[in-house]
Amino acid sequence: MIAGLRNVxxxxxxxxxxxxxxxxxxxxxxxxxxxxxxxxxxxxFIDTDYVMDTTRGFRYENITPxxxxxxxxxxxxxxxxxxxxxxxxxxxxxxxxxxxLIMRIVKExxxxxRKSTSAEVFMNMIDxxxxxxxxxxxxxxxxxxxxxxxxxxxxxxxAWDSYLIPYYNKDIKEGxxxxxxxxxxxxxxxxxxxxxxxxxxxxLMGDTGQIFVLGKSTIEGEYVCNxxxxxxxxxxxxxxQPDPKCLLRINKNTxxxxxxxxxxxxxxxxxxxxxxxxxxxxxxxTGFGISEEDACEYTTSACWEPLIGGKSACNNNRxxxxxxxxxxxxxxxxxxxxxxxxxxxxxxxxxxxxxxxNAVKRVLKNQVFQNDILLSIFTYGCFENExxxxxxxGLYGDLGITSVAMGNxxxxxxxxxxxxxxxxxxxxxxVKRMIATDFEGQKEMFEELQRERSHFGCDDPDVITLTQxxxxxxxxxxxxxxxxxxxxxxxxxxxxxxxxxxxNFGASFDxxxxxxxxxxxxxxxxxxxxxxxxxxxxxxxxxxxxxxGNVIDFMVSPDFIKHNMEKMIGLIKGAVVAGFFEMQMxxxxxxxxxxxxxxxxxxxxxxVRVWGFSSYFKDLPDEYKDVLIKRALENERKVA
Length: 640
Hints:
The protein is an alpha/beta fold. It has helices spanning 21-31, 86-111, 116-127, 133-149, 160-173, 179-194, 197-200, 227-239, 256-270, 278-287, 292-295, 323-333, 342-365, 373-377, 382-385, 406-422, 428-436, 443-451, 461-478, 530-538, 558-563, 565-578, 590-598, 622-635, and strands spanning 4-5, 52-53, 211-214, 216-217, 223-224, 245-250, 274-277, 299-301, 305-307, 320-322, 399-404, 489-491, 551-556, 582-587, 607-610, 613-616.
């Protein structure tokens, strides 16, 4: 596969030739501008005028490289001892190109009279292991910027408390650093990662994928955390910016004070950390064929999809599955006269869902990824297998899809069951007419549907059974997929496309107008208590291939957590035991959101939770602001 550069100038090409990946990467390392950042502690830059062109094939995004590879040795230590194959030659050439860039940075540092220790830190990257806490962070930052420079999007940060704890312990023991020093170091780390916030944002401002993971569990179920686990959260809270993001892994043995610290951070409005339940996630991973050792080290890609950092090229967000489309197709294509019962209708719905899933599989089958030597160097398995990630070289390479509109589907089906089959108030043809015309002339019926309490997210055995039946059907239909490299498909109940996929989608019988957003993740603002949706989500089965992100999404008023901290700690601990998969909270009042939309200049730093990331409210399109306002009003039992 060939590659090029965006924004090509004569500095790079004077003959119009498109060069190979190795040649382009070498040109990047030799020619990009070494930019000066304002952070005195860390050196980090991205020359956005010259990034690798990955438009000729699918690029790898939603990735977390093996940062540890550059901690235990230098870039030259990663090379093959000989170059008797083309893969080895290309692999080694990319390592040498990185060393060329390092030497350019060292020269620039010495010219601008930066601290001599900064130049030494970069020199050591060539052929020495990291020896101190700050040096280890600088190495990880340098590798991170290389991935952004080569047009990888949504680059995860990995389990930084695990990576960095040996260097922290050494510097603390030797008196080089204090805990207070480390807080300031981590604050600078967050600030430097945030500097390119606008460039790094993918679909929406804040959608950077820069998520670091804290905490973990052993195979025996013991909880593992350390000083850095706490310090990272404290520093994140102090900086109070939407990026980078945080996921905290917890289990039934997580200390109360760590849960309290996480809730305190969430209550500031950061919406972070996202919580993941190891007691559920790890068994799902091992059940899918991931080793116990690797499953216990999982991180996440971009938002919430679990992956094995540094060992996966999983592409966990390839395409969304719209559960409502099958119901829409049923009304458009099926012979409604022959459907005499709700059970028959559900069978027809599943038939059309199967057709939609087959279409998803065809889309995935036709996706060809570009070769990616940099990612191959920092993905375990590629060196050993002498294969690029695009050729299946990584230890794990399964594909992940997200999903939308399960909530709209469940509520539509329940309303059809009630009004058509139970009460005989309408026929299926009447329903078809209403959704086809966007409820034109049916204002009373539309308002009645909106008054119906949402079934999705309710702790009702029948609702859970129906949801699970649809999930299991999708799981089974996806389970026979495999590509030339043995990749399988994972699916989950969370997805970022609840706005985009709904924009041109017709009305639905859950009381939704054409173009209105779909339900967000696993959410239901009409529930009287958080425990109801926790119980609902906890009773679903996420095993087999159904673990690609399943997020309970709450709206919480700002004072609620602080005034009920002990109850919230108990809620989280109870939710872990009940069996939730993942959980996030948006802590903001409707009054604040409404005011911030009207007068954004008064709320320049208001942070909200979107999809699986946090963002400044002022940076969001109005349609996203409106969804947050609507959900907050519903949560507060208010009318817009």
